[in-house]
Design a protein that fits this description.
glycosidase, Pectate Lyase C-like, six-stranded parallel sheet, 2 domains, 498 residues, mainly beta
């Protein structure tokens, strides 16, 4: 193992005991589980540890008062289900903190990284502020956001992220494909933040030289994710799931908001990603709009709202090597432990240039997924696309899927079909680990209407389980070109209306 990486590994282990996911002190002879290990969002009652003050309200000032949060605006959203208003942070009157005022010098990664961190800290301590990335190229390592901070990229600004894994250490509390662990920091990371944003007309871009080498999944990598799966299956505390080593090669997300409230992404361009591109995880009130996302690496979904609620994704352009949108809620024991469904998600007015699916639901859905409204989206002719809507699960996942609506969608040729629902999607896990606990996924209330596409293999392929059929699916006013295979391919489906 290289000496530098050994040092970072030691730092990661040492800091894990007192950092964001460290083990709290023992009480009455028992070590208390960390708040984030026993449920999604904390509560001040019911036996759970309250969240840090900045996650639920104003932060204490140095003189004992309260520093106020930045103001929020409320968005009213129409959907096929009652949709709560979404709180959006308003930085229009916030003080601005230019990174050049904190010593950033173009071409000097260390000075740029330090300046960004100092500007973020100053803005947060001031009660809120906008950290300005001016025009030009700025090479940096990880960026950790704080409450009441807007990272703003001016037109012509490129925030270029280093390809060196050691720039994303020490390890932080993150996830890998629906399982929590300590891993390399996401390139942009916010943990337990309130009122946080990334805005502007500039670009964030990932250098990919090393991450590309990690796309491969050799045996040591597969053994590492098998170990992580078994740790989760045994309910091993998250802080003990340390996944940074020479062989695991678990690539970090580009942008992760982890247990955050009132999140805004507006206007920026995102180019390349080591793994999932935008990952709102256990978040509440998320608005993602007017983005341009291009990422064609392995697992390069556009947005993965996981165990998050009250989410709006609108007016974005996606050009992906994987799904444009993939809604998730944890894998197996992780979803059952955290017990937080993904719900109240509105997706509208998207343009997709490439993507495995316009919207995927699952396969990580053990916490449940409900109330999703997809409308007025276009997949351009010539795009690489498997489905407009694909719901995928397996016999180990449990959870549930209900109240999913898709309407007013257009597409060119689709490689497979308009709707796919499959209940035996296991990917590498089929041979990697055995089925230890069998939990089927109830799927019901799937409604598609006013959809047009060119040639397809089928309009709908629904493969339910004999023990638990898929129920209550409707497809109305669906227009396609030539159907290459069969219009409807169905097994174990009850109450299908066409």
């Amino acid at each position: 193992m290289p000496k530098t990486l050994r040092i970072y590994l030691i730092l990661a282990i040492l800091t894990s005991q007192h950092a964001i996911g460290g083990r709290p002190p023992a009480v009455g002879g028992q070590t208390l589980a960390p708040q984030h290990a026993i449920g999604g969002r904390p509560s001040a009652v019911g036996g759970q540890t309250p969240a840090p003050q900045h996650a639920i309200g104003g932060r204490p000032s140095a003189v004992g008062g309260q520093i106020p949060d930045v103001p929020v605006k409320k968005l009213q959203i129409k959907a096929h289900f009652p949709m709560p208003d979404i709180a959006v942070p308003d930085f229009s009157k916030a003080k601005r903190f230019a990174i050049t005022d904190f010593g950033a010098v173009a071409g000097n990664k260390e000075k740029i990284s330090a300046a960004i961190a100092q500007a973020i800290d100053a803005a947060s301590k001031a009660g809120g502020g906008t950290v300005v990335i001016p025009a030009g190229e700025w090479l940096t390592g990880k960026v950790h956001l704080k409450s009441n901070v807007n990272l703003h990229l001016e037109k012509g600004a490129v925030l270029l992220f280093s390809e060196k894994p050691e720039d994303y250490l020490p390890a932080v509390h993150s996830t890998w494909e629906g399982i929590e662990c300590y891993n390399y920091s996401p390139l942009i990371y916010a943990y337990q933040c309130k009122n946080v944003a990334i805005t502007g007309e500039g670009e964030v871009r990932a250098k990919m030289e090393v991450w590309k080498e990690w796309f491969a999944r050799p045996r040591p990598h597969m053994e590492s994710i098998k170990r992580l799966y078994n740790l989760a299956q045994a309910y091993t505390p998250v802080q003990e799931r340390q996944m940074v080593n020479d062989t695991a090669h678990l690539r970090p997300q580009f942008i992760q908001f982890n247990r955050c409230e009132n999140v805004l992404l507006d206007g920026i361009t995102i180019t390349n990603s080591p793994f999932w591109t935008i990952h709102p995880y256990l978040c509440e009130n998320v608005v993602i709009r007017k983005l341009k996302v291009y990422a064609h690496g392995h697992n390069n979904d556009g947005v993965d709202p996981e165990m998050s609620r009250n989410v709006l994704i609108e007016d974005c352009v996606f050009d992906q090597g994987d799904d444009a949108i993939a809604i998730k809620s944890g894998r197996n024991p992780e979803g059952w432990r955290l017990k937080t469904p993904a719900k109240n998600i509105v997706i509208r007015s998207l343009t997709v240039k490439n993507g495995h699916q316009l919207v995927a639901i699952g396969s990580e859905l053990s916490g449940g997924i409900e109330n999703v409204d997809i409308s007025h989206c276009e997949v351009v002719d010539g795009a690489k696309l498997n489905h407009l809507l694909f719901i995928k699960t397996n016999e180990r996942m449990g959870g549930y899927v209900k109240n999913i609506y898709a309407s007013n969608l257009t597409a060119g040729k689709i490689d497979l079909g308009v709707l796919g629902i499959e209940t035996d999607v296991l990917y590498q896990w089929r041979t990697l680990v055995p089925t230890k606990i069998r939990k089927l996924t109830p799927i019901s209330g799937i409604h598609l209407s006013d959809i047009s596409a060119k040639d397809v293999q089928f309009e709908s392929r629904i493969l339910g389980q004999k023990e638990l059929p898929v129920k209550n699916v409707s497809m109305k006013n669906i227009t396609t070109g030539k159907v290459q295979e069969k219009k409807e391919i169905h097994e174990n489906v009850l109450n299908f209306q066409h």
